[in-house]
Design a protein that fits this description.
Length: about 180
């Protein structure tokens, strides 16, 4: 029973740490993560997917790339495909793959966050929840509890110490007190 509990708790702890790494490590390299909030990019991106957006020089972005950009003064972030590039004006025309028409406005180079390189299906839901106060508290509590549980199980597996010998150890007959 203890072995099964140990395996389960260790597995859960590894999964939680791996999930944290999928979120924390990319940030160290300037990679932004966003949850897909609408179906405008179906079939390649679904609602709830977590996308990884790499900073990219706008001059290197080409037609067909999927970019994330700031849409307005409210700092709404949108991820759509580039359908046209106007290098002279420093603008992109974008469109959601599932949409019938191009986006209403063009995207200035300065509003580009980067290019979407890959996504993890459904991880965006977890990402959004963990970025709330309640989600952070629960995640930290669960990780701490699993760590304590795993350590407690590993301590209970240790062999007991040998019992002390009975009475004092007699002095060696060859030793003298001179």
């Amino acid at each position: 029973m203890k072995k099964t509990a140990s395996v389960i708790s260790t597995t859960m702890l590894v999964i939680l740490i791996a999930a944290a790494l999928f979120v924390a490590v990319p940030r160290l390299f300037g990679i932004k993560m966003y949850s897909v909030l609408s179906p405008s990019m179906e079939d390649i991106l679904s609602t709830g997917d977590l996308i990884y957006v790499f900073p990219t020089d706008p001059e290197k972005i080409k037609e067909g790339d999927v970019i994330s950009f700031v849409l307005n003064e409210s700092l709404t972030v949108v991820t759509h495909r580039v359908v046209a590039v106007d290098r002279d004006a420093g603008r992109f025309t974008t469109k959601g793959d599932a949409n019938n028409a191009n986006d209403a406005g063009t995207v200035l180079y300065g509003n580009v966050i980067g290019v979407e390189k890959f996504s993890i299906p459904r991880l965006g839901y977890f990402f959004d929840y963990v970025n709330t106060t309640a989600g952070r508290i629960i995640a930290i509590t669960v990780i701490a509890a699993l760590t304590i549980f795993t350590v407690a199980l590993s301590d209970s597996k240790k062999k007991p110490a040998l019992p002390d010998s009975e009475g004092p150890v007699p002095p060696d007959e060859n030793e003298s007190d001179s």
